[in-house]
Amino acid sequence: MSHPDPYGSEPRGWDRPERPVALPWPEQDLDAGQWNRRPTAGPELYADPHTRPYADPNPYDERGRTVRPDDASTRHGDPERHDEPGRYDEPGRYDGPQPFDGPVRYDDDAGYPTAQLAPIGAEIAPDPDPEPATEPDPPSGRRTKGRRRASVDRPATQQLGTGRAGRNLPAAIGVGLGLGALIVVPLAVYPLAFLPVLAGAVAIGMWEMARAVRRSGAHPPLVPLMAGGVLTVGLAWFAGPDALSLGLLVTVLGTMIWRLGDGPAGFQRDLTAATLIAVYVPFLAGFAALLAAAPDDGPLRILATLIAVVLSDTGGYAAGVSFGRHPMAPSISPKKSWEGFAGSVTAAALGSALLLWLMFEVAPWWGVVFGVAVSCAAVLGDLAESMIKRDLGVKDMSNLLPGHGGLMDRLDSILFAVPTAYLLLAIFVPVVN
Question: 288-316 burial, b for 16+ CB within 10 Å, e for fewer?
């Protein structure tokens, strides 16, 4: 099927009648031979400005550049004109020869290139193999994919944010109450039932610590550690302080023997990490077993210690959020402030003075000393674990407890507080055997 000629009915070809040549530029004396014209019997340009020039069937020159019919020199492939800027500077118009970007697709029926180069009125078949449209990446600051835009009918989704202390406060309060009930109920109903709770907490804490230190390349053997930790707590409950030290020794020796089976590679590193875990978790937690196993008033001793730690944490949190301005240890825990530390000590001192007077009939000033010492030990334990986590490059030991992180993130202050409380209560409230 032949297509109508969109450029008029004038004869096309090389044997057109001669016409006077009117050059489109003012330099009439310019040598036309330098444009490397194709030999022709007729003129290359038309004098009539309303008549479009002949469309070259090959729209690309030997370098693969697009040839525009408006630029005669580019159409005939002059090598000296390819890099010359275009003569059309108006917006939206041609701005010089463009490089060839890829293969040319022709319509099977019409024989024309893509729609940009087809004559006016020509029908272009749809592309049989269209390129899939890729969605551009959204710029920063815009909503991400999957989040709907708020409107009058659809209000914005409320996100549960965190407070200034970096916690989800409702979840933290709920988990804290649950942990408190898990401790208080066994102590009040049947004190020996507190031993499995303590042994389970020690096992979970050792698992979290072993999992965290693997980030540093150390691989402490977990099986002898957990078995030795549970044994250490049980020995402290039933046999006293000497058995606590024996349990630590058995745990370290058992870990060393177990680790020998894996060869000498990294032995010193793994054994050092295992010793740190054995001392940090089961040995310090064994003092909680010593407190709870004291005759007659063991449950009261462990409750007084835990309440003092809770008062210290609560007072520090409230004072830090309300008045915290001066960082206490910015390189270790940036959120701790001296104002929060003062709140911790004050709350623990006042609460312990009342508790020890009511529970053990101890003078209030001894209760203040107990509260201050326990609060300082709890803060040091919190800073010690923060330093370990910062050295390992972790934020929380795990995500086991919503709003708290891992169990070790709650035991950090308690583990340093129970040895201090055991020593002070042994002085203020001697154990009657």
Answer: bbbbbbbeebbbbbbbbbbbbbbbbbbbb
pLDDT at res. 63: 55
Cα separation, 307 vs 312, in Å, equals 8
Neighbours of 390 (CB within 10 A): 14
CA 352 to CA 304: how far, in whole Å? 7
3-state secondary structure of 333: strand
Please give the radius of gyration of the chain, using alpha carbons only, rounded to the nearest integer.
42
**In contact, 306 and 414? CB cutoff 8 Å:** yes
The pLDDT tens digits of the residues spanning 99-126 come to: 544 444 444 444 445 555 555 555 555 5
pLDDT of residue 336: 87
Residues 6+ apart with CB under 8 A from 385: 397, 408, 409, 412
According to DSSP H, which parts of 40-168 are helical? 72-75
Specify the pTM: 0.61
Distance between CA 99 and CA 108 in Å, rounded?
25
Strands 333-337, 327-329: parallel, antiparallel or unpaired by DSSP? antiparallel
Residue 386 C-alpha from the chain's centroid: 19
Mean pLDDT of the chain: 75
| Token pair 């009918």 in the structure block, residue | 153
Q: Which two tokens stand for residue 123?
A: 């029908």
**Quick one: which of 302, 285, 259, 306 has its CA closest to 203?**
285
